Amino acid sequence: MDCINSDNYVGYMEQPNQKVEPIPNKKKPTIRGACPNCNSTRTRRAATKTGGGLFKRFFCKPYRCRACRKRFWLLSPLRVFFFIGMILTMTAVVTAAWIYVEEKLKSVKPLVASAKAANGQQAADNNIGEIEVNFGKENMGIRGDEVATQWFGKAAGHNNVEGQYFYGKALLEGRGITQDFRQAVYWLEKAAHRGYGDAQMALGDMYRMGSGIDIDLERAYLWFNLAASQGIKLAAPARDSMAKLLSPEQLSAMQNEAKRISGEIQRPPQPPAVVGQPK
């Protein structure tokens, strides 16, 4: 069946009890919206059925001739314009998002240079890590997990604790990067030993469930205990459930280990005192 333009076409309303005789005509229709088989304008809308191809189903409307009973399709300009409008809108949104990200990326180099000049290499690394983590969070909703994980990896390399946690989680879940449990444990432990509560909670879950590592209820209790001390939600119930499965000796040993780790947590460096100002 051919698809014919149906600009402002209104079908003929058949009278009740009226006998309709087919009008044989093998020529192409000369009336806009007429039946392509008999050139009759006595048509009505038909139900959409399977078949006809995607183009007809998306951009045409089905009709049936009352004279010869033949079913045919008419092009719908409204559907065509709607589809074109959707494509243009999506293109504009993606372009605007891309321009926004590119402009943000251009601002990284000046910030890095000024950080190095003002505070030295260590402070610059901290500032760079914070910038990269922020870019990672922004790209999670724009460019996808792969680009976000690349930024988190850079932040982790600059010793940013939040970047280490997000990068470890990405490796654990295989989000935007190949899943690697060994590397996930490495980066999550680095963040956990620096007192990052979410990383401690994630490690507790890994040891409890055996996600990529051997199940170790003692280590699970240890990290849940540390996460609970950071106020992480659900950490305390998880710690208590692990405590029921351990002996008093095991609990005592893990509590002592938790105290040791808490005493070794790296605290953020304090800013230098300004000369001439009271400490």
Using DSSP, what is the number of strands?
A: 4
CATH class category of the largest domain:
Mainly Alpha
Report the CATH architecture of the largest domain.
Alpha Horseshoe
Number of helices: 10
Count of structural domains: 3
Rg value: 34 Å
Report the structural category. alpha+beta
Major beta-sheet overview: 4 strands, mixed
Distance between the termini: 88 Å
Provide the residue-averaged pLDDT. Answer: 75
Q: Into which percent range does the helicity of residues fall?
A: 55-70%
- Beta-strand proportion: 5-15%
Q: What is the string of helix and strand elements?
A: EEHEEHHHHHHHHH
Q: Please give the order of strands in the largest beta sheet.
A: 1-4-3-2
Can you identify the CATH superfamily of the largest domain? Tetratricopeptide repeat domain
Summarize the entry for a quick read.
Helices cover 57% and strands 6% of the residues. With 279 residues, it is an alpha+beta fold. The longest helix is centred in the middle third of the chain and has 32 residues, at 108-139.
